[in-house]
Amino acid sequence: MRAVRAMWMRGGTSKGGYFLAGDLPDDRDDFLLRAMGSPDPRQIDGMGGADPLTSKVAVVRRSQRAGVDVDYLFLQVFVDRATVSDAQNCGNILAGVGPFAIERGLVQASGEETDVRIFMENTGQIATARVQTPGGALTYEGTARIDGVPGASAPVPLTFEETAGSTCGALLPTGNAVDEIDGIACTLIDNGMPCVVMSAEAMGIRGDEDPADLEADLGLREQLEAIRLKAGEMMNLGDVTDKSVPKMTMVSRPMAGGALSTRTFIPHRCHKAIGVLGAATVGTAALLPGSPAHAVATLPDGTEKALSIEHPTGEMTVIVTLEDGEVSRTAILRTARKLMDGTVFG
Ligand code: NQM
Protein backbone atom coordinates (compact mmCIF):
# COMPACT_ATOMS: atom_id res chain seq x y z
CA MET A 1 0.00 0.00 0.00
CA ARG A 2 1.32 3.45 -0.92
CA ALA A 3 1.21 6.34 1.56
CA VAL A 4 0.91 9.76 -0.08
CA ARG A 5 0.66 13.29 1.38
CA ALA A 6 -2.72 14.80 0.55
CA MET A 7 -5.08 17.55 1.60
CA TRP A 8 -8.83 17.03 1.38
CA MET A 9 -10.77 20.19 0.58
CA ARG A 10 -14.22 21.37 -0.36
CA GLY A 11 -13.96 23.49 -3.47
CA GLY A 12 -17.27 25.23 -4.22
CA THR A 13 -19.97 22.53 -4.26
CA SER A 14 -17.47 19.71 -4.84
CA LYS A 15 -14.95 17.90 -2.67
CA GLY A 16 -11.74 16.06 -3.37
CA GLY A 17 -8.09 15.28 -2.79
CA TYR A 18 -5.46 17.96 -3.47
CA PHE A 19 -1.95 16.70 -4.21
CA LEU A 20 1.40 18.25 -5.08
CA ALA A 21 2.40 16.69 -8.41
CA GLY A 22 5.74 15.55 -6.95
CA ASP A 23 4.00 13.66 -4.13
CA LEU A 24 2.10 11.31 -6.45
CA PRO A 25 3.56 7.90 -7.37
CA ASP A 26 4.42 6.91 -10.97
CA ASP A 27 1.33 4.68 -11.17
CA ARG A 28 -0.79 7.73 -10.36
CA ASP A 29 -4.10 6.56 -11.78
CA ASP A 30 -3.96 3.16 -10.12
CA PHE A 31 -3.14 4.84 -6.81
CA LEU A 32 -6.01 7.35 -7.17
CA LEU A 33 -8.51 4.59 -7.95
CA ARG A 34 -7.41 2.74 -4.79
CA ALA A 35 -7.40 5.91 -2.70
CA MET A 36 -10.95 6.83 -3.80
CA GLY A 37 -12.27 3.25 -3.62
CA SER A 38 -13.20 2.98 -7.33
CA PRO A 39 -14.71 1.17 -9.10
CA ASP A 40 -17.55 0.66 -6.63
CA PRO A 41 -20.88 2.51 -6.55
CA ARG A 42 -20.42 2.98 -2.76
CA GLN A 43 -16.63 3.64 -2.84
CA ILE A 44 -16.67 1.91 0.53
CA ASP A 45 -12.95 1.07 0.44
CA GLY A 46 -11.78 4.62 -0.21
CA MET A 47 -12.17 8.34 0.35
CA GLY A 48 -14.67 9.01 -2.47
CA GLY A 49 -18.20 9.93 -1.48
CA ALA A 50 -20.08 7.68 -3.97
CA ASP A 51 -20.86 10.70 -6.16
CA PRO A 52 -18.90 12.22 -9.07
CA LEU A 53 -18.90 15.54 -7.18
CA THR A 54 -16.94 14.02 -4.29
CA SER A 55 -14.60 11.82 -6.34
CA LYS A 56 -12.34 14.54 -7.68
CA VAL A 57 -8.63 15.30 -7.62
CA ALA A 58 -6.46 18.40 -8.08
CA VAL A 59 -2.79 17.95 -8.97
CA VAL A 60 -0.88 21.18 -8.37
CA ARG A 61 2.70 22.24 -9.13
CA ARG A 62 4.71 25.46 -9.17
CA SER A 63 4.40 26.95 -12.66
CA GLN A 64 7.29 27.64 -15.00
CA ARG A 65 5.08 29.98 -17.06
CA ALA A 66 5.61 33.75 -17.00
CA GLY A 67 3.01 35.54 -14.87
CA VAL A 68 1.52 32.28 -13.56
CA ASP A 69 1.90 30.96 -10.00
CA VAL A 70 0.77 27.35 -10.25
CA ASP A 71 -0.35 24.74 -12.78
CA TYR A 72 -3.51 22.78 -11.91
CA LEU A 73 -4.52 19.49 -13.48
CA PHE A 74 -8.03 18.27 -12.69
CA LEU A 75 -8.74 14.53 -12.62
CA GLN A 76 -12.20 12.96 -12.42
CA VAL A 77 -12.02 9.59 -10.70
CA PHE A 78 -15.08 7.73 -11.94
CA VAL A 79 -17.13 6.16 -9.17
CA ASP A 80 -18.27 2.90 -10.76
CA ARG A 81 -15.65 2.51 -13.51
CA ALA A 82 -11.89 2.04 -13.26
CA THR A 83 -11.33 5.33 -15.09
CA VAL A 84 -9.36 8.45 -14.19
CA SER A 85 -10.02 11.15 -16.77
CA ASP A 86 -8.35 14.47 -17.54
CA ALA A 87 -10.83 15.16 -20.37
CA GLN A 88 -12.61 17.90 -18.41
CA ASN A 89 -11.74 20.86 -16.24
CA CYS A 90 -13.48 21.66 -12.93
CA GLY A 91 -14.16 25.19 -11.72
CA ASN A 92 -15.44 24.08 -8.32
CA ILE A 93 -12.31 22.14 -7.37
CA LEU A 94 -10.37 25.13 -8.80
CA ALA A 95 -11.70 27.20 -5.87
CA GLY A 96 -9.49 25.21 -3.47
CA VAL A 97 -6.32 25.48 -5.59
CA GLY A 98 -5.39 29.03 -4.48
CA PRO A 99 -5.64 28.26 -0.74
CA PHE A 100 -3.86 24.90 -1.27
CA ALA A 101 -0.99 26.63 -3.10
CA ILE A 102 -0.58 28.98 -0.13
CA GLU A 103 -0.89 26.10 2.38
CA ARG A 104 1.93 24.20 0.64
CA GLY A 105 4.18 27.26 0.28
CA LEU A 106 3.99 27.50 -3.52
CA VAL A 107 2.59 31.03 -3.20
CA GLN A 108 3.33 33.56 -0.44
CA ALA A 109 0.34 35.40 1.03
CA SER A 110 0.79 39.13 0.57
CA GLY A 111 -1.52 41.77 1.99
CA GLU A 112 -5.19 41.40 2.85
CA GLU A 113 -5.98 39.49 -0.34
CA THR A 114 -3.64 37.36 -2.45
CA ASP A 115 -4.26 36.81 -6.16
CA VAL A 116 -3.18 33.37 -7.30
CA ARG A 117 -2.76 33.00 -11.07
CA ILE A 118 -3.55 29.42 -12.08
CA PHE A 119 -2.84 27.72 -15.40
CA MET A 120 -5.54 25.11 -15.97
CA GLU A 121 -3.69 22.27 -17.68
CA ASN A 122 -6.82 20.46 -18.88
CA THR A 123 -7.85 23.32 -21.15
CA GLY A 124 -4.70 25.47 -21.40
CA GLN A 125 -6.30 28.59 -19.94
CA ILE A 126 -5.69 30.91 -17.02
CA ALA A 127 -7.87 31.71 -14.02
CA THR A 128 -7.21 34.12 -11.18
CA ALA A 129 -8.36 33.18 -7.66
CA ARG A 130 -8.53 35.98 -5.08
CA VAL A 131 -7.78 34.40 -1.69
CA GLN A 132 -8.46 36.11 1.66
CA THR A 133 -5.21 36.57 3.59
CA PRO A 134 -5.91 39.19 6.29
CA GLY A 135 -2.66 40.39 7.87
CA GLY A 136 -0.80 38.02 5.51
CA ALA A 137 -2.42 34.87 6.98
CA LEU A 138 -4.67 32.53 4.98
CA THR A 139 -8.22 32.24 6.30
CA TYR A 140 -11.22 30.12 5.37
CA GLU A 141 -13.52 32.08 7.71
CA GLY A 142 -15.83 34.68 6.22
CA THR A 143 -19.34 35.72 5.39
CA ALA A 144 -19.67 34.58 1.76
CA ARG A 145 -22.47 32.12 1.05
CA ILE A 146 -22.96 29.97 -2.04
CA ASP A 147 -26.01 27.86 -2.73
CA GLY A 148 -25.46 24.13 -2.24
CA VAL A 149 -23.10 24.66 0.74
CA PRO A 150 -24.39 25.27 4.28
CA GLY A 151 -22.97 28.16 6.30
CA ALA A 152 -20.56 30.91 5.34
CA SER A 153 -16.86 31.03 4.43
CA ALA A 154 -14.22 33.37 3.04
CA PRO A 155 -15.02 34.40 -0.53
CA VAL A 156 -12.85 33.04 -3.35
CA PRO A 157 -13.86 34.99 -6.47
CA LEU A 158 -12.64 33.29 -9.66
CA THR A 159 -12.03 35.14 -12.92
CA PHE A 160 -11.60 33.31 -16.20
CA GLU A 161 -10.10 34.77 -19.34
CA GLU A 162 -10.76 33.57 -22.88
CA THR A 163 -12.43 30.29 -22.07
CA ALA A 164 -14.34 30.07 -25.37
CA GLY A 165 -13.53 26.83 -27.18
CA SER A 166 -11.52 25.47 -24.21
CA THR A 167 -11.84 21.84 -25.27
CA CYS A 168 -13.79 21.92 -28.55
CA GLY A 169 -11.62 24.52 -30.34
CA ALA A 170 -14.46 27.02 -30.80
CA LEU A 171 -17.33 28.42 -28.75
CA LEU A 172 -19.72 26.82 -31.24
CA PRO A 173 -17.80 23.82 -32.63
CA THR A 174 -20.38 23.16 -35.37
CA GLY A 175 -20.57 26.86 -36.25
CA ASN A 176 -24.28 26.87 -35.40
CA ALA A 177 -26.23 28.24 -32.44
CA VAL A 178 -28.68 25.36 -32.91
CA ASP A 179 -28.28 21.81 -34.25
CA GLU A 180 -30.96 19.18 -34.30
CA ILE A 181 -30.09 15.77 -32.82
CA ASP A 182 -32.71 13.00 -32.61
CA GLY A 183 -35.38 15.65 -33.28
CA ILE A 184 -34.27 17.85 -30.35
CA ALA A 185 -32.94 21.41 -30.85
CA CYS A 186 -29.53 21.53 -29.13
CA THR A 187 -26.87 24.19 -28.65
CA LEU A 188 -23.44 22.52 -28.77
CA ILE A 189 -21.27 25.01 -26.93
CA ASP A 190 -18.00 25.35 -24.98
CA ASN A 191 -17.23 28.47 -22.95
CA GLY A 192 -14.95 26.60 -20.55
CA MET A 193 -16.98 23.34 -20.44
CA PRO A 194 -18.39 21.40 -23.39
CA CYS A 195 -22.18 21.40 -22.93
CA VAL A 196 -25.29 20.40 -24.84
CA VAL A 197 -28.12 22.79 -23.98
CA MET A 198 -31.71 21.72 -24.69
CA SER A 199 -35.17 22.86 -23.68
CA ALA A 200 -36.53 20.93 -20.68
CA GLU A 201 -39.96 20.93 -22.29
CA ALA A 202 -38.59 19.35 -25.48
CA MET A 203 -37.10 16.58 -23.33
CA GLY A 204 -40.46 15.96 -21.68
CA ILE A 205 -39.69 17.35 -18.23
CA ARG A 206 -40.90 20.48 -16.38
CA GLY A 207 -37.43 21.61 -15.35
CA ASP A 208 -38.08 21.89 -11.60
CA GLU A 209 -37.74 18.17 -10.79
CA ASP A 210 -35.58 16.79 -8.03
CA PRO A 211 -32.27 15.34 -9.38
CA ALA A 212 -33.10 11.92 -7.86
CA ASP A 213 -36.40 11.80 -9.77
CA LEU A 214 -34.65 12.65 -13.04
CA GLU A 215 -32.01 9.99 -12.39
CA ALA A 216 -34.78 7.45 -11.85
CA ASP A 217 -36.22 8.24 -15.31
CA LEU A 218 -34.43 5.62 -17.41
CA GLY A 219 -36.14 6.72 -20.64
CA LEU A 220 -34.85 10.27 -20.18
CA ARG A 221 -31.33 9.03 -19.41
CA GLU A 222 -31.26 6.83 -22.51
CA GLN A 223 -32.46 9.71 -24.68
CA LEU A 224 -29.84 12.05 -23.19
CA GLU A 225 -27.04 9.52 -23.70
CA ALA A 226 -28.02 8.91 -27.34
CA ILE A 227 -27.89 12.66 -28.00
CA ARG A 228 -24.62 12.99 -26.05
CA LEU A 229 -22.79 10.34 -28.07
CA LYS A 230 -23.75 12.06 -31.33
CA ALA A 231 -23.00 15.53 -29.95
CA GLY A 232 -19.54 14.40 -28.78
CA GLU A 233 -18.51 13.59 -32.36
CA MET A 234 -19.98 16.88 -33.63
CA MET A 235 -18.10 18.82 -30.92
CA ASN A 236 -14.64 17.44 -31.91
CA LEU A 237 -14.57 15.32 -28.74
CA GLY A 238 -14.58 11.98 -30.58
CA ASP A 239 -16.11 8.94 -28.90
CA VAL A 240 -17.32 10.24 -25.52
CA THR A 241 -18.57 6.89 -24.19
CA ASP A 242 -15.92 6.95 -21.44
CA LYS A 243 -15.64 10.73 -21.07
CA SER A 244 -17.43 12.97 -18.59
CA VAL A 245 -18.07 15.58 -21.29
CA PRO A 246 -20.17 16.99 -22.83
CA LYS A 247 -22.49 17.89 -19.94
CA MET A 248 -26.22 17.72 -20.74
CA THR A 249 -28.23 20.74 -19.54
CA MET A 250 -32.00 21.09 -19.85
CA VAL A 251 -33.22 24.68 -19.50
CA SER A 252 -36.54 26.26 -18.62
CA ARG A 253 -37.91 29.66 -17.67
CA PRO A 254 -36.52 31.10 -14.41
CA MET A 255 -38.56 30.14 -11.35
CA ALA A 256 -36.89 32.32 -8.70
CA GLY A 257 -36.15 35.63 -10.41
CA GLY A 258 -32.96 34.45 -12.16
CA ALA A 259 -31.96 34.34 -15.83
CA LEU A 260 -33.02 30.74 -16.46
CA SER A 261 -33.48 27.42 -14.67
CA THR A 262 -31.30 24.32 -15.26
CA ARG A 263 -31.09 20.58 -14.67
CA THR A 264 -27.71 19.12 -15.72
CA PHE A 265 -26.52 15.54 -16.20
CA ILE A 266 -22.70 15.35 -15.73
CA PRO A 267 -23.26 13.24 -17.77
CA HIS A 268 -24.83 10.16 -16.09
CA ARG A 269 -25.72 11.56 -12.68
CA CYS A 270 -27.87 14.67 -12.28
CA HIS A 271 -25.90 17.53 -10.67
CA LYS A 272 -27.33 18.74 -7.33
CA ALA A 273 -26.33 22.25 -8.46
CA ILE A 274 -24.35 23.07 -11.62
CA GLY A 275 -20.63 23.17 -12.43
CA VAL A 276 -18.83 26.52 -12.47
CA LEU A 277 -17.62 26.41 -16.06
CA GLY A 278 -20.85 24.58 -16.90
CA ALA A 279 -22.81 27.60 -15.63
CA ALA A 280 -20.53 29.98 -17.55
CA THR A 281 -21.20 28.00 -20.71
CA VAL A 282 -24.97 27.70 -20.23
CA GLY A 283 -25.15 31.44 -19.44
CA THR A 284 -23.32 32.14 -22.68
CA ALA A 285 -25.75 29.88 -24.58
CA ALA A 286 -28.58 32.05 -23.26
CA LEU A 287 -27.05 35.05 -25.08
CA LEU A 288 -27.38 33.38 -28.51
CA PRO A 289 -30.57 34.48 -30.28
CA GLY A 290 -32.58 31.56 -31.63
CA SER A 291 -31.13 29.06 -29.13
CA PRO A 292 -33.28 26.98 -26.72
CA ALA A 293 -31.68 28.79 -23.75
CA HIS A 294 -32.30 32.25 -25.23
CA ALA A 295 -35.96 31.34 -25.77
CA VAL A 296 -36.55 30.82 -22.03
CA ALA A 297 -34.05 33.31 -20.55
CA THR A 298 -34.66 36.67 -18.90
CA LEU A 299 -31.53 38.68 -19.72
CA PRO A 300 -30.19 41.91 -18.21
CA ASP A 301 -29.01 44.79 -20.44
CA GLY A 302 -25.42 45.99 -20.75
CA THR A 303 -22.05 44.52 -21.68
CA GLU A 304 -21.31 43.20 -18.15
CA LYS A 305 -24.17 40.80 -17.48
CA ALA A 306 -24.86 39.20 -14.11
CA LEU A 307 -26.69 36.00 -15.03
CA SER A 308 -28.29 34.10 -12.19
CA ILE A 309 -28.30 30.46 -13.27
CA GLU A 310 -30.93 28.62 -11.22
CA HIS A 311 -30.21 24.98 -10.31
CA PRO A 312 -31.70 22.30 -8.00
CA THR A 313 -30.24 23.77 -4.78
CA GLY A 314 -30.40 27.50 -5.54
CA GLU A 315 -28.56 29.63 -8.05
CA MET A 316 -25.06 30.52 -9.28
CA THR A 317 -24.42 34.03 -10.52
CA VAL A 318 -22.06 34.25 -13.49
CA ILE A 319 -20.77 37.67 -14.54
CA VAL A 320 -20.15 37.61 -18.27
CA THR A 321 -18.29 40.52 -19.89
CA LEU A 322 -18.84 41.08 -23.60
CA GLU A 323 -16.42 42.88 -25.92
CA ASP A 324 -17.55 43.40 -29.54
CA GLY A 325 -20.31 40.85 -28.94
CA GLU A 326 -17.83 38.16 -27.80
CA VAL A 327 -17.37 36.90 -24.23
CA SER A 328 -13.99 38.18 -23.00
CA ARG A 329 -14.21 37.47 -19.26
CA THR A 330 -16.30 35.37 -16.87
CA ALA A 331 -16.33 35.74 -13.09
CA ILE A 332 -17.94 33.57 -10.40
CA LEU A 333 -17.98 33.67 -6.61
CA ARG A 334 -16.97 30.43 -4.85
CA THR A 335 -15.78 29.47 -1.38
CA ALA A 336 -13.49 26.64 -0.25
CA ARG A 337 -12.46 24.97 3.00
CA LYS A 338 -9.62 22.77 4.20
CA LEU A 339 -11.04 19.52 5.63
CA MET A 340 -8.03 17.29 6.28
CA ASP A 341 -4.26 17.41 5.87
CA GLY A 342 -2.34 14.17 6.14
CA THR A 343 -1.55 10.91 4.43
CA VAL A 344 -3.86 8.92 2.20
CA PHE A 345 -3.31 5.23 1.48
CA GLY A 346 -3.96 3.53 -1.83
O1 NQM B 1 -18.19 22.97 -14.62
C1 NQM B 1 -19.19 19.01 -12.10
C2 NQM B 1 -18.54 20.50 -10.33
C3 NQM B 1 -18.47 20.08 -11.76
C4 NQM B 1 -17.60 20.75 -12.71
C5 NQM B 1 -19.25 18.48 -13.43
C6 NQM B 1 -17.37 22.20 -12.53
C7 NQM B 1 -17.34 23.09 -13.71
O2 NQM B 1 -19.58 20.94 -9.91
O3 NQM B 1 -16.45 23.96 -13.75
O4 NQM B 1 -17.20 22.71 -11.44
O5 NQM B 1 -19.87 19.12 -14.27
O6 NQM B 1 -18.68 17.41 -13.63
O7 NQM B 1 -17.55 20.35 -9.63
UniProtKB/TrEMBL annotation:
Keywords: Isomerase
Keyword Isomerase carried by entry: yes
A Gene Ontology molecular function term of the record: isomerase activity
EC numbers for this chain: 5.3.2.8
Highest taxon listed in the record's lineage: Bacteria
Pfam families, A to Z: PrpF (PF04303)
Primary enzyme class: isomerase
InterPro entries referenced in this protein's UniProt entry, alphabetically: OMA_tautomer-like, PrpF-like
Keyword Ligase included in the entry's annotation: no
Gene3D superfamilies reported for this sequence: Diaminopimelate Epimerase, Chain A, domain 1
Family named by the database record: Belongs to the PrpF family.
Record-given protein name: 4-oxalomesaconate tautomerase
Organism: Tropicimonas omnivorans
